[in-house]
Design a protein that fits this description.
Phosphatase 2c, domain 1; five-stranded antiparallel sheet; 31% strand
Length: 208
């Protein structure tokens, strides 16, 4: 799949890879760079095919179109939950970078996965896995668990749908290019019975 990376001096370099079980994929993603940082999300519409894709696209549109002042993690999940009521529903992992504080907030609802792999593992900067809560946006919104983490230059964020087998990140070369990582994860860990998508982003520096 095509990669879209940010130029030199940007906040992130990123890439993705995905595959549909059949026809239109119910998995999609958002990468939104804004004045305060960036928002990234991976969204999985329930089931497969057109109805799943419709739910995923609606959540993607909500995250992409939300005013910058409403880009808090909890606010975005709330807006998606309200906006998906008349759809099949979706699950989502979402991360929000704040470049002023060099920090990341993230949360997940449903069977989604996320991991932050450190460029340099040190006290206070260990690898972290996303603790997602059970639920379905549009049907049952759990009490959201939003965690805040410090980030350093070249730390690697990976978000994936459940079409990617768990603990994929243990075999990732965290220093490889984002597209190489995304392609590796998809080719090695994608399930044969589901849509699959993985989004990879490396933190660089505050956008100028």
């Amino acid at each position: 799949m095509a990669a879209l990376s940010e130029p030199e001096g940007a906040l992130l370099e990123w890439a993705w890879a995905g595959a549909a079980l059949e026809g239109e994929s119910g998995d999609t993603f958002v990468v939104r760079i804004h004045a305060g940082g960036a928002v990234l999300a991976v969204i999985d519409g329930l089931g497969h095919g057109a109805h799943a894709a419709c739910a995923a696209r609606r959540a993607s549109a909500i995250v992409s179109a939300s005013p910058e002042r409403e880009l808090g993690v909890a606010e975005l999940f709330g807006r998606c939950h309200e906006g998906l009521v008349e759809t099949r529903g979706a699950v989502m992992s979402l991360a929000s970078y704040d470049h002023a504080s060099s920090s990341l907030k993230w949360a997940g609802v449903g069977n989604v996965e996320g991991v932050l792999l450190r460029a340099v593992v040190a006290p206070g900067f260990a690898d972290m896995e996303l603790a997602a809560r059970g639920g379905v946006l549009g049907f049952r919104m759990p009490e959201l668990r939003v965690s805040s983490l410090p980030v350093s230059r070249r730390d690697l964020l990976i978000l994936a749908t459940d079409g990617i087998r768990g603990e994929f990140w243990r075999e990732v070369n965290r220093h490889a290019a984002p597209q190489a990582i995304a392609d590796f994860v998809l080719s090695r860990f994608a399930r044969r019975d589901d849509d699959a998508l993985v989004l990879v982003a490396r933190y660089l520096e505050a956008a100028s």
